[in-house]
Amino acid sequence: MAMAIAVYPTRMELLKLRQRVGLAQRGHDLLKEKVDALVIEFFEVVRRIQEARAKALEQLSAAHRALLMCFAIMGTLETKQASKEAKRELQVEISTRHIMGIAVPTVEVGEVERNALMRGYSLRMTSSVLDEASREFERALKLLIGLAELEGSAFAIARELERTKRRVNALEYILIPRLKEALKFIVMKLDEIERENFSRLKRIKAMLEERE
Amino acid sequence: MSADRLIKLELSKLNVHLPQRRLSLKEALLSAKPQVVTRDGGVHKFKREELEFLAGLLPEADRDKLQLPILIALEPKLGRGTARISGEAEVKVVSRVLEKEPAAGELLIYRPEVAILRRKLPTTTQYLFLW
User: Which uninterrupted H or E stretch holds A91?
Assistant: First the structure.
């Protein structure tokens, strides 16, 4: 049971408490709406993560198959040598966008796929299966960057959801019951004072009537 | 910090993601970088494919009436999970997206519809908390 807040049983305090209960109730209702909205966002991001992860895994397995073909046709050492020769600088712009005040990451990446001439390895010494494997890995990289953005969003939304839920619970199970308990105490105390006054007045009236 | 101040702080932060000034669909389509500045100073960008999708739903004459982002107003007095869409062009677009009967001036939508709307228009819609 919620512990009552220590208050003086006065009418002023009663008015103040009613205002506080109103504010707490309003805060609770709005934060609950926010939790609902965050849950919608969270499940949407999770749904997109599942799709993105499935696509990325499929692409990665295609890339690994292409790499195995490359090992088999070109030879392991030659493939490793070509991979050492390959150079890559990828321009990634990481900014944030806001969902209900939560900063979620946005990753913008330029074209990830390149043609064979831009990869840096010698075309004379390598086979076309290496180009195929490289292309498949570049496609996988693009999907993985998209997946990273979504996972970052999911983490940010989940953190905010947890924080807001904690606030809603604190209001629902601690603050509002305590305020209501204090409100009830003041109302009862004021009623009691009123009853005491009433009986006192009746007693005085009876005494005055007896004296007359 | 007292509980009351904490609640007031939380309430004051609820709508900081909203734009300082909304942009019409026509302005957004003409802009090279369709975006708005939010109340907390951040930038909210609109995806061009969403803008084009919206443009396809509205006649050309109505494009300057549609203000972006479309606000999904959540108001506790409407009941939990109920949202209000206001504005003639906004109601027209949302009705078409959700395949609902078009209403005049105002439209009430419910949580599953909010989820569909957010899925289809993630950058051109925003939540607005009212009390």
Answer: none
Residue A130 near residue A74 (C-beta atoms within 8 A): yes
Structural domain contains residue B8: no
Range list of H helices, B14-126: 25-30, 48-57, 88-98, 111-120
A179 in a structural domain = yes
pLDDT, mean of residues A38-54? 94
Confirm whether A2 is domain-assigned: no
Nearest to B17 among A30, A32, A100 (CB): A100
Domain count, chain B: 1
Say how many domains are in chain A. 1
Chain A residues within an 8 Å CB radius of B118? 40-41, 44
Short-list A45, A41, A38, A39, CA closest to A147:
A45
Question: Which tokens is A13 given?
Answer: 């305090």
ipTM: 0.86
Chain B hits for A33, Cβ within 8 Å: 74, 76, 80, 129
* CATH code at position A52: 1.10.287.3240
Name the closest residue on chain A to residue B11, using Cα atoms: A27
Average pLDDT, chain A: 89
For position A205, what pLDDT does the model report?
A: 95
Quote the CA–CA distance of A65 and A77 in Å, as a whole number: 17
> Where in the sequence is the domain holding A51, given as residue range(s)?
11-211
Count how many pairs of residues, chain A against chain B, have C-beta atoms within 8 Å: 74
